[in-house]
Amino acid sequence: MTPGARVQAAIEILDLVIAAARANGAPADRIVGDWFRTRRFAGSKDRRAVRDLVYAAIRACGPVPVSGRAAMLRLVQEDSNLASLFDGQGHAPAPISPDEPVAAGGVAPPWLELALAESDIAGADALALLTRAPLDLRVNSLKAERDTLELPEPAEPGLAPHSLRLPHGTQVEAWEAYSSGQIEVQDIGSQLVCAALNAQPGELVIDLCAGAGGKTLALAAAMDNRGRLIAADTDRARLSRLEPRAWRAGVTIAETRLLNPNREAEALVDLVGQANAVLVDAPCSGAGTWRRSPEGRWRLTPDQLARYAAVQARLLDLAASLLRPGGRLGFVTCSLLDVEGASQAAAFLTRHPGWTAQDLALGAGEARGPGWRLAPNRDGTDGFFVACFRKT
């Protein structure tokens, strides 16, 4: 592919990404992969170059662009060398007209930028949400030790006790250490907030929103594969991914439970008042993970944010009912918005006067309301809020 053809390919993919964002369709990485699967003429360098253009354009636009071309023209304003590729030759895009629309810049749609600013995320802190994230690993303590693990490429120890950091794009899935379950891909921030629950061997622990089981595997390692660990979720497809991951990691204590949306308590009735600890890694806006999925800020609306907050409150109340006296409730969201963090945690304490918030010492981040917040600019991690409550 010529450089101009690569730009045109990126424009076509951006049109698909924009349409999917408006319709809550497939994520950008899947759209990019599907586009190239039907175009075998593109080599590996072409795919990498086009993908880089797509994501650079997504990051350059604040609100949802009117078109892929408008998004690419926003990128032209940041990289003037691209303008010469709009010459209409071959498969290159048509020349630029002085009056055609150019997407607006910024960190996010205006309403969302305001919500971030009201949560004290502005300036460099907000811009850091659009940088490229490194690749973080968790060394699986059931099979390996960080200090003695040998990997094909050098990795830096991270802030979490079992974490390693590698450059973005490192192909760890091809490594023997990955296939043998010695390492898992997991952001260092995710590891820190998971460790805040302080799961212990022999306990009954519930991962109430387990998804594909990333935090479930980390909890199992912290429990040294001893005790009982319930991984529950309403998404059958995501939950089904846990079993092969657990087998690879050597995790034997994880049990899965499929829950019915809005009727989650029915499948957990036998656990009421029994758990030592419950982790609520609640559904949220994902505003702390835009480094990995920058088009996520185009998908969010004020109504959706309000619905996320309502679900979080309901799941926290459900989790509270599952704990025995003295039990611990960990609340986590991958968001920097207070409505999904400090304000949500404060509201829980208001509804449950018999509970107290625990002091946290994560080794990174800062206090935020009754909990703790990690952010890309300050901590080099994805954005997270975590609070831990104890039932007195």
Write a structural description.
It is a single chain. The protein has 15 helices and 13 strands. With 392 residues, it is an alpha/beta fold. The protein folds into 3 domains: 3-93 and 102-106; 135-185, 2-Layer Sandwich (Alpha-Beta Plaits); 188-391, Rossmann fold (3-Layer(aba) Sandwich), CATH 3.40.50. Strands 5, 6, 7, 8, 9, 10, 11, 12 and 13 form a 9-stranded mixed sheet that branches. Strands 2-3-1-4 form a 4-stranded antiparallel sheet. Helix 9 (214-222) links the parallel strand 5 and strand 6 (228-233). Helix 1 packs across helix 4 (68-78). The chain is globular and about 70 Å long. The mean pLDDT is 95.
Radius of gyration: 22 Å
Mean pLDDT: 95
Order of helices and strands: HHHHHHEEEHEHEHEHHEEHHEHEEEHE
User: In percent, how helical is the residue content?
Assistant: 25-40%
Contiguous helical run count:
15
- Fourth-tier CATH superfamily name of the largest domain: Vaccinia Virus protein VP39
Q: Based on DSSP secondary structure assignment, what is the total number of beta strands?
A: 13
User: Any idea how many domains?
Assistant: 3
The gross shape turns out to be: globular
Return the CATH architecture of the largest domain.
3-Layer(aba) Sandwich
* CATH topological fold name of the largest domain: Rossmann fold
Instruction: Report the sheet-strand fraction.
Output: 15-25%
